[in-house]
Amino acid sequence: MGPAPHKTLAAMVPTYGPLIHLRLGSVHMNIASSAAVAAQFLKTHDANFSSRPHFLGIEHGAYNYEDLVFAPYGPKWKLLRKISAVHLFSNKALEDFRHVREEEVAVLTRALTRSGSDPVNLAPLLNVCTTNAIARAVLGKRVFNDGDGAAGQESSDFKEMVVEMMVLGGTFNIGDFIPSLKSLDLQGIIARSKKVLKRFDAFLSKILEDHKISGSDGEKHTDFLSLLIKMKDEANTEGVQLTDTNIKALLLNLFTAGTDTSSSTVEWALTELMRHPKLLVKAQQELDTVVGKNRLVSELDIAQLPFFQAIIKETFRLHPSTPLSVPRMASEDCEINGYIITKASSLLVNVYAIGRDPSVWPEPLEFKPERFLPGSEQAHIDVKGNDFDLIPFGAGRRICAGMNLGVRMVTFATATLIHAFDWVLPDGQMVEKLNMDEAYGLTLQRASPLVVHPRPRLAPEVYGAY
């Protein structure tokens, strides 16, 4: 499949069509590469494809399916999904924590202002911002630094763990497809998965124990983790008993799927705008008109920024954070496009290929936000699983639980950065030659980090004390 299986599979579509069956060892793998075929799997037959196949890397690297992302479809998954949807990702919860996101992005802005004449590697700073924003909602406190926005050794180690887990999650492990080779761990994936989970478990166990201790001392907590601990201590919750492992596994999902996906998408958006300076200027003019130059953007401003919203949609189309969906598995035989999909066979949706389908998207390889502007043919398309032409978060029952948070965080952070700064490459580099290669994993990182000079463009007092 090569180093970029999403591209390899997309290249097969003109020859073999949008529904491809591959026999990978003992596994029957079905790949959906068009909106129409994806809709049959994720809408018409959604219930039949609501569970996950078992993979060794996930078994040893994600608490043996005790989490939300990889858990089999059933009562415990439904409970974890419901708790997250109501208390963390609902519109009310997102609005309650809007001030947290705005404060952490302001911290990032101040950190960038302090860079002076030195070029900045944007990825670590974005990761600190998104991680602290999630941590304050989930834990009631930051996990990195004390509000200075800097990327220290602890945050660098954390990002390294997240990237390692995402790479392992997206690696085709031969032991998953040829069971007789499973115990040999020929690629070392099981060993690496155990190692990274051990590091994550130490990080999460300390968070959990510190929270329990501070709670037992009479300190009042109203955050998401406190709710989980309270529910665990209850005798039974909707017929399901939560455990410490479930809680750590859910925290693992939030701190992996919820951090690097958002920060890498912001990085891709800024990269595309730097490569298209006319679009960047147009977006800045829109922001200046709506927001002015005497304050930072607020999330409440986003609704008045149609061109900027189009930029974010176009970024999700060209650079989906998860190019191949997390695999699903058929619970029973069913028929798709006249073909029988057998029970226990796996499904991958090639989100990358769907977003670049030339029958849907004119000039599919070009970054053209205007395709989403009001009055255009594709203006109605959103990213929330209703329009299968654009499904960066998936669709159906197993759609990304944190989709609404992800959209808000990516949109708001990107808007703030392009409003607050002009972006200049280090001496000797040209935007026309920016490296646009992808580093494949469960999420789609930039192969080389975006290193830039941020130049403040707003009134000096906007950036606060630094």
From TrEMBL:
<keyword id="KW-0521">NADP</keyword>
<keyword id="KW-0479">Metal-binding</keyword>
<keyword id="KW-0472">Membrane</keyword>
<dbReference type="GO" id="GO:0004497">
    <property type="term" value="F:monooxygenase activity"/>
</dbReference>
<dbReference type="GO" id="GO:0005506">
    <property type="term" value="F:iron ion binding"/>
</dbReference>
<keyword id="KW-0560">Oxidoreductase</keyword>
<dbReference type="Pfam" id="PF00067">
    <property type="entry name" value="p450"/>
</dbReference>
<keyword id="KW-0349">Heme</keyword>
<dbReference type="InterPro" id="IPR001128">
    <property type="entry name" value="Cyt_P450"/>
</dbReference>
<comment type="similarity">
    <text>Belongs to the cytochrome P450 family.</text>
</comment>
<dbReference type="GO" id="GO:0016020">
    <property type="term" value="C:membrane"/>
</dbReference>
<dbReference type="InterPro" id="IPR002401">
    <property type="entry name" value="Cyt_P450_E_grp-I"/>
</dbReference>
<keyword id="KW-0812">Transmembrane</keyword>
<keyword id="KW-1133">Transmembrane helix</keyword>
<dbReference type="InterPro" id="IPR036396">
    <property type="entry name" value="Cyt_P450_sf"/>
</dbReference>
<keyword id="KW-0503">Monooxygenase</keyword>
<feature type="binding site" description="axial binding residue">
    <location>
        <position position="400"/>
    </location>
    <ligand>
        <name>heme</name>
    </ligand>
</feature>
<dbReference type="GO" id="GO:0044550">
    <property type="term" value="P:secondary metabolite biosynthetic process"/>
</dbReference>
<protein>
    <recommendedName>
        <fullName>Flavonoid 3'-hydroxylase</fullName>
    </recommendedName>
</protein>
<dbReference type="GO" id="GO:0020037">
    <property type="term" value="F:heme binding"/>
</dbReference>
<dbReference type="GO" id="GO:0016705">
    <property type="term" value="F:oxidoreductase activity, acting on paired donors, with incorporation or reduction of molecular oxygen"/>
</dbReference>
<dbReference type="InterPro" id="IPR017972">
    <property type="entry name" value="Cyt_P450_CS"/>
</dbReference>
<keyword id="KW-0408">Iron</keyword>
